[in-house]
Amino acid sequence: MPSTHSSYYVTTPIYYVNDAPHLGHAYTTVAGDVLTRWHRQRGERVWYLTGTDEHGQKIQRTAEANGVTPRQWADRLVTDAWQPLWDHLGIANDDFIRTTQQRHTDRVQEFVQDLYDKGEIYKGGYEGPYCVDCEEYKLPGELIDGEGEYAGRKLCPIHKRPVEILKEENYFFRLSEYGDRLLAHYEANPGFIQPESARNEVVNFVRGGLQDLSISRSTFDWGVPVPWDHQHVIYVWVDALLNYATAAGYNENPEKFADTFPADVHLVGKDILRFHAVIWPAMLMAQGLPLPGRIAANGWLMVGGEKMSKSNLTGIRPQDLTSHFGVDAYRWYFLRAIAFGQDGSFSWEDFTARYTSELANGYGNLASRVAAMVGTYFGGTLPAATADGEAEAAVHAGLVRAVAEADRRIGDELDFQGGILAVFDFVKQVNGYLTEQEPWKVAKDESEQGRARLATVLYTAAESLRAVAVLLNPVMPGTSRKLWDSLGAEASLGALAEQRVQDAGRWGTLPAGSTVTKGAILFPRLEEKPAV
Ligand code: ME8
């Protein structure tokens, strides 16, 4: 979807700081990072935002239970857990917003005050079941019956914990008036909500009729005060959604705001789709601001048939996996193994099997074979291809296909799995080409013709790897870097990050004469599985 502003703007949800990040959070953030790096390699200006959601009852209660103030708790979690994990995973975000920052809270107050002045917000009463884990009122029909320790009580369908009946006099946003406009927007912009199943769910929900939204709370005080009534704090979800505007310079930096806002893609888990696809656009409509290009919902990482959550973990932290498989394989695995938008289960066995067959024996082996043979047969200087034939033409065509397919799938469709597979199919093709051409046999033919054939086969394989390094750079930047070094590509082609996806298929880019070295092993053999 073309954007009217000039930066490609990608966001993750801002995560609650009630606990440390787990595999599910890292899943969304890595996906955003790959999308960001992909668009950067298209030569676009990209702005990638992540951050933390620090207000609300859930955080307040967690802090109390730990004997610190909510602010202290949030500071500790951000500094000790969240930011270090994103650094560790190589997340290239341009900003990190915390909802307790004044640059955010001031703007939230202005936004809400504006809506109040326009008559979009009014005072009313509400009583209903509330789930603190969701920070959301539930409809009675959504609740499920408790069993065992919760027998006789009504539970949140997502968290399986009892809801509380809240009765409050609150401020309400006239959400119910936006149903028709929202439906018209979904209709006119079929790509607004992705995947299709998520879109259908939202459309049905809105068709069922919207209620006005309670946007303030008065039973606790950990939040942004309602500017005209300090007995209330602003509902944590209204506060949180606004991060996408405040970080982009809303009411503060008009130039930056015009350049960045609205987001091209909001990445969210499907648990928070309605907030992003219903409430957020309605808030923007009320303010006359433009709507985001796309809300893309990822599925859930599951464990034992349930959504992986802070209370329901595999017991495996992202760091447990990266220390075993490496950061790059970790970034690759979840996007490769699970179709984006679908639920998927993590298993140590599946990760091990794919690491071994696709990374180590497939990609890694190709890279090490080619570097070793250029070393052995040509003293480490890449020879020129002078005897291209049908077999080479097939490789050239395979690359062009892989580039187009990966670019469309990852860059446009957010089909990370399909895009990665397109590149790995090409890796497979090149491995097959080497097996067929048997350069180790051709090497025995020392005639001029034999040398030309050998040179052509090795150039073809090395040039293919040059393109693979570029295409996989957004997914596995550390590995691509090693390969780039091993191909001696920097000297003639410059920095890897400067290589354009669109040009990756241009055959003959890596010049003959490049210095090829064996370099580091891309995917070392795995150690014994640790006890975690
Ligand atoms: O909802 N599988 O924060 P949160 C896949 N603060 N993704 C998962 C996941 C799983 N099992 N568990 C979590 C909030 N996620 C709000 C957001 S935005 C304005 C405010 C990911 O800490 C997924 O992206 O509960 C999900 O939407 C997000 O973490 C929820 O993080």
Report what the structure shows.
- The structure is a single chain.
- By secondary structure, this protein is an alpha/beta fold.
- The chain has 2 domains: 7-299, HUPs (Rossmann fold), CATH 3.40.50; 355-503, Isoleucyl-tRNA Synthetase, Domain 1 (Orthogonal Bundle), CATH 1.10.730.10.
- The chain is 48% helix and 15% strand.
- The protein has a 6-stranded parallel beta sheet with strand order 3-2-1-14-15-9, sandwiched between helices. It has a 4-stranded antiparallel beta sheet with strand order 5-4-8-10. The protein has a 3-stranded antiparallel beta sheet with strand order 11-13-12.
- The radius of gyration is 26 Å and the shape is elongated.
- 44% of the residues are buried.
- The mean pLDDT is 95.
- Bound molecules: ligand ME8.
- Ligand ME8 binds at residues 13-16, 24-25, 27-28, 53, 240-241, 243, 268-269, 271-272, 298, 300-301, 307-309.
- A motif ('HIGH' region) lies at residues 15-25.
- It catalyses: tRNA(Met) + L-methionine + ATP = L-methionyl-tRNA(Met) + AMP + diphosphate.
- GO terms for molecular function: ATP binding; metal ion binding; methionine-tRNA ligase activity.
- Zn(2+) binds at residues 131, 134, 156, 159.
- Residues 382-528 form the Methionyl-tRNA synthetase anticodon-binding domain.
